[in-house]
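Moderator note: this is an archived Q&A kept for reference. The question asked for a predicted structure of one protein chain; the sequence and the answer are reproduced below.
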Amino acid sequence: DRYTAVLRSRPGPAPRLAEGIDPAAAMMMVVWSFFNYFTMERLFRVKGLYGMEETEVIGMFSEVFRRGLLPR
């Protein structure tokens, strides 16, 4: 699998992920989320898909992927 190969080829420590999370699957989820967002915004010109500015959406995606949806 291409994602797994890329992750294994990178120098340094393995990514820090919650126990039981497959790094390749996590990377695919992040990539596809941003891909879908930008496809709608740029290719299909659906502006304001989330009711926010682009930088706010990127920040929200990043926070959700880093911290999750539930309070800790």
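Archived answer notes: Residues 25-72 form one domain.
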